[in-house]
Amino acid sequence: MALERIARTARNGFRRSPSGASTRTSEKDMLCEGASTRKYCSLPSLETDTRNRNFLYLSSISKVNHNSFWSRGIRSTPTYQFPSAERIVEESDSEYNDPKYPGLEATKPGEKPRVVVLGTGWAACRFLKGLDTKIYDVVCISPRNHMVFTPLLASTCVGTLEFRSVAEPVTHIQSALATDPNSFFYLASCVGVDTDKHEVYCETISKGGLPHEPYRFKVAYDKLVIAAGAEPLTFGIKGVKEHAFFLREVNHAQEIRKKLLLNLMLSEHPGIPEEERKRLLHCVVIGGGPTGVEFSGELSDFIMKDVRERYTHVKDYIKVTLIEANEILSSFDVGLRRYATNHLTKCGVRLMRGVVKEVHPEKIVLNDGTDVPYGLLVWSTGVGPSEFVKSLDLPKSAGGRIGVDGWLRVPSVEDVFALGDCAGFLEQTGRPVLPALAQVAEREGKYLVQLFNKIGAQNAGKALSLKDIPLGEPFVYKHLGSMATVGRYKALVDLRQSKDAKGISLAGFLSWFIWRSAYLTRVVSWRNRFYVAVNWATTIVFGRDNSRIG
User: Fold this and answer.
1) What is residue 7's three-state secondary structure?
2) Is 419 exposed, middle or buried (0-12, 13-18, 19+ CB in 10 A)?
3) DSSP annotation of 305
4) Most CB contacts within 10 A, which of 146, 313, 413, 481?
5) The dihedral sign for the CA sequence 150, 152, 156, 161
6) Is 144 in contact with 120 (CB distance < 8 Å)?
7) Is 214 in contact with 205 (CB distance < 8 Å)?
8) How does pLDDT run across 6-56, given as a tens digit for each residue?
């Protein structure tokens, strides 16, 4: 009987709300996010389809932290706790009487088709840059309004580069977002996708700047491109999210820099015990991939050149430890791995083998029981699918990414594409899931925008118009090689196309010059290339800035 009463209440509410989404106007306002038995993906409403009597799902929804880290511009899906499904029956039907979401309605005949892009990472921005806005209107939705040039992000943590040098506003990448009357950038997070209605549902938290918190709206699309990125992997280890710093966003680098400089200054205070001073100045990096190694190298340079000159009272206390479960830079050539190990050791970086068991406010505990005190902990152990991606009722590839075919389409739904770190080839395609690398995301973005411009020229940009349109050759990825800097004007360049293939491998000063030249040319705009070049020159001549602001 309870299930029937719940179903009856839901039906009554939806008869009064033609949009299928409603909000309460009382002080206890919450948006009920329900599960669907159709092609719905985290739709923020109570689904009326009761064939499977799935309403008891509501009582098991737990709240997701709104302050969870962002991943290439898409935050994890916020859901809300209901003590029991019976509460829905007890509430008045008036809670479903609110008007439909504000937003952009479906395009009309004669209007340009609308492409909605979720995210502002490498894949999304490469797609946006090449999109023909004479054919399409474009809407970009992300809680950050810029792209981060991640290969140089570690350099900003110690003052080698300024933060603005690695951030490119998305409206500079695609000017139509700022100038076209029907193209927009929305500072918001996508919380749901209705693939039947061709709509995405969004929310933004303005901290008092909007009439409702969170403010919710919808956007109809003709084509949807999901480039939601990924989020750092913590492997469920206790204390990581609370005490460790990640290194994927500009705000992460800012927090690392502030913490590092704060510890340096606090350690000089009189009366600080020697053991506490050692702990404050112990920087621990977890993860021996390119990000972890490059950050360790930058820290080593900072210590050798700047700390020794400007913090002479504590220069002998500051240490860097890099902890990795296996070998560092495991995807690089064996000779390069050996070179990196020897060079980092020579630069004062302590390399440890171990697996983290727990993270505490002032120490980490390894699986063998070893305690490692720290003042700064940076976590760089790879990435995995975000909560938003996990919540979508779409096919999944190995590892939980959104499954795509050879043309980066999501099977079983119309007009939805996915690319970048959030997407992977389905098993039936016979292709491996590609690594979460910037060059993979950028190449996918370049391929997909060429495909969109091609189908748009054939008047197939509107919703449900792709049938019988030849798409051409599927996407093929060819690895161009890997690079990593290890500090003191030394770097690694591995030009092999795969881990087991043969190819050119270089290490040393020449590799460092190649590394800097390559990334300088890859920076998105001439403005930021100028910033980066000037920052590098300023650092060489005057040293790094050690001002702590904020």
Assistant:
1) helix
2) buried
3) I
4) 146
5) negative
6) yes
7) yes
8) 444 444 443 333 333 333 333 333 333 333 333 444 444 333 333 333 332
